[in-house]
Amino acid sequence: ETGVTQTPRHLVMGMTNKKSLKCEQHLGHNAMYWYKQSAKKPLELMFVYSLEERVENNSVPSRFSPECPNSSHLFLHLHTLQPEDSALYLCASSQVSSANEQFFGPGTRLTVL
Amino acid sequence: GQQVMQIPQYQHVQEGEDFTTYCNSSTTLSNIQWYKQRPGGHPVFLIQLVKSGEVKKQKRLTFQFGEAKKNSSLHITATQTTDVGTYFCAGANDYKLSFGAGTTVTVRA
């Protein structure tokens, strides 16, 4: 499946580093999402962009900063992360309403040392 | 806020047996969706149920949406090793989709 791509697939960073996760969708969707998936926890919705505007921010710490320059691209900028931020970060896209099926990317496995 | 509870958290199944996973929402849903995540993979959409009491089948998988549109179930018959993974339900209300914690299925050959 290449509808939603994410880079990098794996990332190891120190707590003082700055890095960015990239997501690109080729499905013509106009809503994009960032989720965090930790071991033994439900999928946590972090951010929602609909028609390139942020419509939801689920109390995510400011060390995570999303950016959606257009309907096909989504970034998650990371700064001064903590070890507990280590997780699988999944990007998804859908037609404008979140009530529609979402297509997930393969995820970025992030490890914070 | 909307909460979606899913049980059981783990399901260990003998190959060839049947099992069911259940999903319950604290609020009435506009639709419910089911996703499967294979080990090391990402969630993949399986199906969406919209109507009260709706039942849909995909080969050995049977999905049901409750009459009150607050609960759903996934029943798998004759479990195979290819069924391993985590099955998530996701309840949709207005514009928001809330995922359950998932049922992780392992199969004994």
Q: What is the end-to-end distance of chain A?
A: 31 Å
What gross morphology of chain B would you assign? globular
SSE order of chain A: EEEEEEEEEEE
Instruction: Briefly note the structural class of the backbone of chain B.
Output: mainly beta
Give me the Rg of chain A, rounded: 13 Å
Quaternary class = heterodimer
Write a short abstract of this structure.
The complex is a heterodimer of chains A (113) and B (109). Chain A has 113 residues and is an all-beta fold. Chain A has no helices and eleven strands.
Structure explained in plain terms:
The complex is a heterodimer of chains A (113) and B (109). Chain A has 113 residues and is an all-beta fold. Chain A is built from no helices and 11 strands. In chain A, the strands form 2 sheets. In chain A, strands 2, 4, 5, 6, 9, 10 and 11 form a 7-stranded mixed β-sheet that branches. In chain A, a hairpin with an 8-residue loop joins strand 9 and strand 10 (103-104). The mean pLDDT of chain A is 91. Chain B has no helices and 11 strands. In chain B, strands 2, 4, 5, 9, 10 and 11 form a 6-stranded mixed β-sheet that branches. In chain B, a hairpin with a 5-residue loop joins strand 7 (61-65) and strand 8. In chain B, 39% of the residues are buried. The mean pLDDT of chain B is 94. Classes of the chains: A mainly beta (113), B mainly beta (109). Chain A binds chain B through residues 1, 41-43, 45, 50, 55-56, 90, 92, 97-99, 101-107, and chain B through 30-31, 33, 35, 41-45, 48, 88, 90, 92-102.
